[in-house]
């Protein structure tokens, strides 16, 4: 082989190596992009699930507040009734 052909082969091999490296980087970037897309979708699903759980917890809290208000109202009436009974029967007995 002549020196010119050897030089051309060397340059061709160097170019192919550069091309292979560029293709590998491109494939890695696409895989990375795909991984990011997958991770983003997982985060969206988590957000939707957490939002649904928050809505459920908020509804249960509102229910508990309503029950608490009702219990408070009933206790107030019961206390008033007991105080009324105690007030009508005179002074409390001392044993």
TrEMBL record:
Keywords from the named record? Coiled coil
* Taxonomy, superkingdom: Bacteria
What InterPro entries does the record tag this protein with? Answer: DUF4164
Q: Which Pfam family, any one, appears in the UniProt record?
A: DUF4164
Question: Coiled-coil region(s) at which residues?
Answer: 2-67
Supply the name of the protein. DUF4164 domain-containing protein
Q: Which organism is it from?
A: Methylobacterium variabile
């Amino acid at each position: 082989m002549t020196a010119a052909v050897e030089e051309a082969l060397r340059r061709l091999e160097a170019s192919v190596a550069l091309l292979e490296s560029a293709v590998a980087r491109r494939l890695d970037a696409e895989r990375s992009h795909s991984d990011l897309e997958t991770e983003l979708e997982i985060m969206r699903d988590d957000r939707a699930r957490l939002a649904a759980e928050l809505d459920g917890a908020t509804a249960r809290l509102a229910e508990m507040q309503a029950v608490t208000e009702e219990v408070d109202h009933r206790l107030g009436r019961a206390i008033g009734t007991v105080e009324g009974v105690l007030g009508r029967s005179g002074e409390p007995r001392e044993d």
